[in-house]
Design a protein that fits this description.
single chain, about 80 residues, three-stranded antiparallel beta sheet, elongated, Defensin-like protein, signal
Length: about 80
């Protein structure tokens, strides 16, 4: 039953890797000409209003940076 020991070891490594890794990718680099806000984007209209409210008079829109991550990005 040597496989049982190796299986437990592998499970422990997998558990540690899942616990120690962050849940969501952080995007620290804004696309050229845009300033992206934290949090997911609900819709283009709300994003544009949010950008104007934050002082970006040109508004903004939802931008998909990577699959599954859509942010509100304001025009710079």
């Amino acid at each position: 039953m040597a496989f049982g020991v190796n299986h437990s070891f592998l499970f422990g490594i997998l558990f540690a890797a899942l616990v120690l890794t962050p849940g969501q990718a952080n995007v620290d680099v804004d696309p050229p000409g845009l300033i992206c806000l934290r949090g997911s984007c609900v819709g283009n209209t709300q994003c544009a209003l949010l950008c104007v409210g934050n002082g970006h008079v040109k508004g903004g829109s939802c931008v998909g940076l990577i699959p599954g991550l859509i942010l509100c990005c304001c025009n710079n």
